[in-house]
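Field reference: sequence -> structure
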Amino acid sequence: MNLGFDIDGVVADLATVMVDHINKEYSLNHTSDVFQNYYLINNKYTNNDKLNLKIAHDVKEKVIDNPEALMKIKPYDNVRKILLILRKSGHQLFFITARNSSFYDLTIKWFRKNKIPFDKIFMAENGEKGLLGRVLNLDFYIDDFHEHLEDMYRYKKRWHKGLILFNRPWNSNVYVDANKFTRLDNWEEVIRIIGIKNR
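Structure field:
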């Protein structure tokens, strides 16, 4: 099968690098739970609205758009192990990210550094995730942002193994249509959904 995955928030723990930066630069003591909204500017880091805006812009500049910071991101627990099982079971692994396309080489380098198997990586910074899902004829796709799943569903309504929302603090209060999408808590559940047994 053709399996698709988002990168940040699904494979790469970008939230921890962002919150570590916030805590260090602003003498705060947050966890990743501070990100209650996918959009950085909509989160409450302090009781000062102007400072919250400054923090959001700072995180974008110093973490999200910073190659050195992106290389420091760690994969989530069990990502490599589960993806290796999927690869050994004969599945194709495609990664579709909304990262800036200028980070393509860096993203490949990060995958190799962390020994994460992949077949192809696609940059969809202009919002064409759904179109890519259809072109790649994906059977399964995981993201941490519900709007990306809606985009996938718009372009392709039949998903053999489903469209999955990985539970993260920034999507915990978001309604998702259970007739279209499934929520997952961890990577072990991916094995169950794909149907690989005795692992």
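Note: The chain has a mean pLDDT of 94.
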